[in-house]
Amino acid sequence: MTDSPIEPLDLLDTDYADILAHSSDPSFELQLVRFGVDAAEARIKTNFLTLVRQKPETPEQWATLTEAWEEACENKPTVEDFRLLAEFLWENQESVEVD
């Protein structure tokens, strides 16, 4: 068995544990941190990208996505923004095969 080397991430153990326990996509969030993104900013971006993958079904899900958009993009999404998301991501979701 070969252990991979420990990578210095400039994170406290508690911050690392928080990512593993609470992130919507821990491996992506850790990758952002590896690339130099601030841990708090990495959480915001990861949360937004995770939410945008699936079209919201309920008003609560739409509100959550809108809040995440505002936090990650620092502006309010427009009707055109959501139209483009639907066109490029959600309307073609069934036709994309996932391995």
How would you characterize this protein structure?
With 99 residues, the chain is mostly helical. It has helices at 13-22, 26-34, 39-52, 59-73, 79-90. The chain is elongated. It starts with 12 loop residues before the first helix and ends in a 9-residue tail after the last helix.
Principal-axes geometry comes out as: elongated
SS element count, helices: 5
- Catalogue the unreliable spans: none
Q: Describe the largest sheet.
A: none
List the secondary-structure elements in sequence, H or E: HHHHH
Note the beta-strand portion. Answer: under 5%
How many strand elements?
A: 0
Average of the residue pLDDT scores: 86
Q: Compute the gyration radius: what is it?
A: 16 Å
Counting helices, strands and paired strands, the structural category is mainly alpha
Question: Can you summarize this structure?
Answer:
It is built from five helices and no strands.
How is the topology of this model organized?
Blueprint: H1 13-22, H2 26-34, H3 39-52, H4 59-73, H5 79-90
Helix pairs in contact: 1-2, 2-3, 3-4
